[in-house]
């Protein structure tokens, strides 16, 4: 074996042995792990809502459909991005919003809640974009779940709940206005605000779905807590009312503020207690 120093061997043979060792070492090392691909949210994983409701203006498309230039007649324009030729302008929706609605409608029921006054224009745009399929619930927005008229979101959401038979707790709603989001949440609907510049994106949909699942988990925890409260009441009834709640819990094996000292203001040493004590002695 060649016992010459490494530097001498490199200079003697143009560094070939050194290069060979370096190549072998590099081949012996494990390659760095590839970055994990971002997993798309699963639209159909349980638990999931039963009804998706979307706004139209600044949520599904970046314009106000009530403007005259987006009026009838409409004609679908073929291309990579779905669009509709209107009487005075080309209506181009948010691409991700259209994709999300199409994908989700394969397993969810989808409806619309919009305060736009031009219902006929909005329905025509949705139809030309291929988002509404008559008589088919699994391929688009249901015609009977399209609440498009001037009014509050509360009226829209309440009517959609009656028409679909789905409660507010099983509904997910997207809108670009904070006031509409607050209105939906007061009704018990899980709602997520989208950016008016981007509309309903995949990231926004994933965030809304996560919020719905958190809300469902919180309600489940509250139900568990209420059942625990019922258990405490049963414990007190089992004690026959002979002791207070704290004493009954302590005798039943619970430790829940049973040994908490009483309020000193009600004791003999307090002003109220001392006055009452003196009056009793008189």
From TrEMBL:
<dbReference type="Pfam" id="PF12689">
    <property type="entry name" value="Acid_PPase"/>
</dbReference>
<dbReference type="GO" id="GO:0003993">
    <property type="term" value="F:acid phosphatase activity"/>
</dbReference>
<protein>
    <recommendedName>
        <fullName>Magnesium-dependent phosphatase-1</fullName>
    </recommendedName>
</protein>
<feature type="region of interest" description="Disordered">
    <location>
        <begin position="1"/>
        <end position="43"/>
    </location>
</feature>
<dbReference type="InterPro" id="IPR036412">
    <property type="entry name" value="HAD-like_sf"/>
</dbReference>
<feature type="region of interest" description="Disordered">
    <location>
        <begin position="256"/>
        <end position="282"/>
    </location>
</feature>
<feature type="compositionally biased region" description="Basic residues">
    <location>
        <begin position="263"/>
        <end position="282"/>
    </location>
</feature>
<dbReference type="InterPro" id="IPR010036">
    <property type="entry name" value="MDP_1_eu_arc"/>
</dbReference>
<dbReference type="InterPro" id="IPR023214">
    <property type="entry name" value="HAD_sf"/>
</dbReference>
């Amino acid at each position: 074996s060649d016992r010459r120093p490494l530097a001498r061997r490199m200079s003697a043979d143009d560094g070939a042995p050194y290069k060979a060792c370096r190549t072998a070492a590099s081949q012996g090392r494990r390659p760095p792990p590839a970055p994990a691909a971002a997993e798309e949210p699963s639209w159909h994983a349980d638990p999931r809502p039963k009804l998706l409701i979307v706004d139209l203006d600044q949520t599904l498309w970046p314009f106000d459909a009530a403007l005259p230039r987006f009026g009838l007649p409409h004609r679908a324009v073929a291309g990579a991005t779905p669009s509709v030729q209107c009487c005075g302008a080309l209506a181009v929706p948010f691409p991700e919003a259209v994709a999300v609605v199409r994908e989700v409608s394969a397993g969810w029921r989808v409806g619309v809640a919009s305060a736009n006054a031009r219902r006929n224009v909005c329905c025509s745009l949705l139809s030309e974009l291929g988002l509404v399929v008559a008589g088919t619930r699994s391929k688009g927005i249901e015609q009977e779940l399209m609440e498009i008229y001037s009014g509050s979101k509360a009226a829209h959401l309440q009517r959609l709940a009656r028409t679909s038979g789905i409660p507010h707790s099983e509904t997910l709603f997207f809108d670009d206005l904070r006031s509409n989001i607050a209105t939906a949440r007061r009704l018990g609907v899980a709602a997520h605000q989208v950016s008016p510049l981007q509309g309903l994106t995949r990231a926004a949909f994933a965030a809304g779905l996560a919020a719905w699942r958190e809300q469902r988990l919180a309600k489940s925890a509250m139900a568990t807590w209420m059942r625990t409260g019922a258990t405490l009441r049963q414990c007190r009834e089992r004690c026959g009312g002979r002791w207070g709640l704290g004493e009954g819990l302590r005798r039943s094996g619970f430790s829940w503020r049973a040994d908490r000292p009483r309020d000193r203001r009600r004791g003999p040493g307090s002003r109220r207690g001392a006055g009452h004590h003196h009056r009793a002695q008189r």
